Amino acid sequence: MFGGKRDLPLQPAEYQGRGRGAPLPPVLVNAAVLFVSLVVSQQLISRFGLDFFILALVGAFFGTLYAIVSLKSLLVPFIVWVLSVGGFRYIWSIQTPILPDLFLDRMMMLWLAMVFMVKFFAERRTLKGPFLLDYLIAIHGLYVLIRIYIQGMEYIHPWTMSYLIPYAAYYFSKNIVTTIRRIWVFLVSLLLLTLYYSITSIAENLGLNFLVWPKLILTERIRWGGRSTGPFLQPGVLGTVIGMLVPIHLYFIATVRSNVTRVGVYVSLALGMAGLYYTYTRGSWLAGIVAILVVAALNIRHYSRVLLPAVVLVPVLAFSFLGLGQDTFMKERVENEDTLGSRVGTAVTALKIWRDNPLIGVGFFQYRNAREDYIQPITVPGLGTIRFVQFRHNNIHDIYLGPLAEDGLVGMGLQFWIYFLILKTFLKKFRWRHEGDHFAIFIMPVFAGVFVGYLVGGLAIDYRFFSFIGVLFYMCAGILYGYQRPEQENVS
Fold first, then answer.
1. How much is the pLDDT for 10?
2. 81 & 181 share domain
3. Model pTM score
4. Cα distance between residue 116 and residue 127, in whole Å
5. Do 210 and 79 fall into the same domain?
6. What are phi and psi of 378, to 5 degrees?
7. 214 preceded by cis ω (within 30°)?
8. Between 20 and 30 A from 406 (CA), which of 116, 302, 422, 430?
9. What is the extent of the structural domain holding 73?
10. Based on the domain organization, do 440 and 305 belong to the same domain?
């Protein structure tokens, strides 16, 4: 029974005789692969030419390399996706007359989702808790999607930009950017992205076209009358993004050890303020200033001393290099009351629409249809009478009253519940600073600046066509919600 022939390991001959045939010799396999490769190469060259073949070969090489690196570390495809959403979507695209256009950001999101599922299901990983905010975000996005489905799916694209992509950023960041090291890499990526925005904004204004990329910016800039638009092709969005990201400089100035690096970050901060200025958007200026002040207030010990040199240098640079005192266009933007009047008229109209549809609103993107039923002038103290012709063609210009009119108390209730949970989690983890936690002392104030910049900027800009602002907000929320101190992670 023991030690007999049955108990001996199967010999190769015995194994080959059981069910499956003998495997092909490696030489035959390699020969078959070589033959197929030659046939495919010959067909590509004959049909598309040598240039296309070489391009496809290089693309296949780098694609394979990227796939190998991505499967090794999820942080790599996550950072690539963030950069592509943040302005580099024009590097490569596939545009078809029937299917939706596949820009780089969409392709990178699909790739990230696929690799994410492979890593988590194949390796039997578990998603990071707690899950209350996860469920709430899913319910809110599904609520708006159901409204769109009932309306006829006409506005599914704005839904993907304003809900699907930012909410996906929350889930990805919560489960991928989970350590201080990964958060540091994430912040470095955002710092470099901010530098790109700043240089592009300054180059647009000064006419340094060789520094502007993509060149589509130069074409779209004409209709904005001298305001920098960046890769988003909209000055308000570019300004809000820079305003939300500028506080990241404070983290690196306070934590880097090299004086040379610190000077470089100060230069980047100055460029960021100049880039923000050249967007000539009052709401974005306010968002950036408030964001920096909030970050400094939450870490007075480290960040206030960082800002002191900036308080002295910024006015000097503004009047010396930016020509702030002689900038007539800036004065026109600041003193322009027509824009303010049209915004107020739009906000009052949105409130009237919500008053008549309080619970579920008039439907996603239905404000433009509903406003035609409210054709009347509006009298506002301090602004006088605002004629309807001044704002009758205005779309929603905020993230509060407009969505309230379209999604009603149900939609806005879910949205503010999301904000409340983020705030509650922030206050809970911010207490870790008393225990010397690096995340709570240095990183959470920066995230607070991003949150506040988003909420303040949303008073004057509708983010629904520009997913990156929402991506920034929900990425930071995901990291905040999922991060645990190392000792707590080990106990878990």
1. 45
2. no
3. 0.85
4. 11
5. no
6. -130, 130
7. yes
8. 422
9. 49-126
10. yes
- Same-domain pairing of 95 and 162: no
pLDDT (tens digit per residue) in 379-435:
777 666 777 666 667 788 899 999 999 999 999 999 999 999 999 999 999 999 999
Same domain, 101 and 205: no
- In this structure, are residues 472 and 244 in contact, taking their beta carbons and an 8 Å threshold? yes
448 vs 291: CA distance, rounded Å: 8
Cβ–Cβ < 8 Å for 175, 128:
yes
**DSSP string covering 131-151, please?**
-HHHHHHHHHHHHHHHHHHHH
- Check: CB of residue 82 under 8 Å from CB of residue 75: no
**Tokens 């008053």, residue located:** 355
In the block, residue with structure tokens 């540091």: 184
Single residue among 94, 126, 158 that ends a domain in this structure: 126
d(CA 396, CA 160): 18
Residue 248 lies in a domain: yes
The rounded distance, in Å, linking the Cα atoms of 177 and 170 is: 10
Q: Which of 92, 126, 160 is the last residue of a domain?
A: 126
Q: Is the same domain home to 184 and 81?
A: no
Q: Which residue, among 464, 468, 452, 372, has the nearest Cα to 158 in the 3D structure? A: 464
- 403 located within any domain: yes
Integer Cα distance of 378 and 246 in angstroms: 38
Tell me which of 387 and 236 has the higher pLDDT. 236
CA distance 315 to 299: 23
